[in-house]
Amino acid sequence: MLPTIDWDDGEVVMIDQRKLPSKEVYVRCRTAKDVARAIRTMVIRGAPAIGVAAAMGVALDTQLATEFYRTCDLLAATRPTAVNLFWAIERMKRVFAGGMRVGRSTAELQALIDAEDVANCRAIGRHGAGVVPAEARVLTHCNAGALATGRYGSALGVIRAAVEAGKRVAVYADETRPFLQGARLTAWELVRDGIDTTVITDGMAGSLMRAGMVDVVVVGADRIAANGDVANKIGTYTVAVLAREHGVPFYVAAPLSTIDLSTPDGSGIPIEERDAKEMTYMGASQLVPEGAAVWNPAFDVTPASFVAGIITERGICRPPFAESLKHVCDGNQ
Ligand SMILES: CSC[C@@H](O)[C@@H](O)C(=O)COP(=O)(O)O
């Protein structure tokens, strides 16, 4: 399993996901401010990983109790869509409000969140492997892998578990414009694991499905509303519509910390808009002429009606999601 983020000598160390796959370099964070910058600039990304990073950021600065809430606000302001960020910060706040000693107990809770994330992804994998046929071509979008979680991955956890169960799995990874999480990160992870991987541009998914070359779609999520609407990386909705048109089941794999029962449906999910430069430049090369306007939402919402199932650590939720999500969040299997 990949070490996406870890402690080293009292500092938080994370692999720099902006540099993969060409360079494997690590960023060291000494303060919560460093962690906040790392989240904002996508050194670390992916909903569960952002949550783990935020928890570590809080734990870094908690020697100073007076700074606690300011640190939480700083980290909460980094990225608006992934609800795992706010979930992790709220957990840290509860520990603090409970009067436990700040430095030690928040550090312990952070370790717990990290360990839970790995266990949850393994459980998601176990439940999700059942939706992958014995010989399967799986399409995924963005990166919901080890890099996006503590270590094992949600959507890629399903793929890993299917492979570990002896299934013959070939993966199509959408390149995922503009940050290229699929081409750079998903392909990097899967190739390292020896899993058959083919990268396609986002615009190729339709032709691939029409040619009958996709058996199942599995993606991750940044926030799932109470009715089962799913916010995930921009382009996910397009994949879901294509999957529906071609009769391909579309699954979402996510831990319970991604489910937001306080948001009734997808219209209430805040969608982050990122810097136009992510689209207009590729490194130093300008791709879009000056004067052209750019719209760069980082996420879209896939209506629940397109989703065959939501794979969680407690099992697979099926429609109607308003009932099944509540049921699973209430602690029922
Ligand atoms: C297990 S990660 C699930 C999602 O966070 C992932 O699919 C995604 O959309 C990540 O977006 P990113 O902008 O790279 O943070």
Describe the structure.
The record marks 142 as: Transition state stabilizer. Keywords: Amino-acid biosynthesis, Cytoplasm, Isomerase, Methionine biosynthesis, Nucleus. The active site is at residue 222. Catalyzes the interconversion of methylthioribose-1-phosphate (MTR-1-P) into methylthioribulose-1-phosphate (MTRu-1-P). Pfam families: IF-2B. By secondary structure, the protein is α/β, with parallel strands linked by helices. It folds into two domains: 5-121, Four Helix Bundle (Hemerythrin (Met), subunit A) (Up-down Bundle), CATH 1.20.120.420; 131-329, Rossmann fold, CATH 3.40.50.10470. Helices cover 38% and strands 19% of the residues. The chain contains eleven helices and 16 strands. The strands form four sheets. Strands 6-5-4-7-10-15-16 form a seven-stranded mixed beta sheet. Strands 11-8-9-14 form a four-stranded mixed beta sheet, with helices on one face. The radius of gyration is 19 Å and the shape is globular. The two termini are 27 Å apart. The model has no long low-confidence stretch (mean pLDDT 94). The chain binds 5-S-methyl-1-O-phosphono-5-thio-D-ribulose. The site of 5-S-methyl-1-O-phosphono-5-thio-D-ribulose has 17 residues, from helix 2 and strand 9.
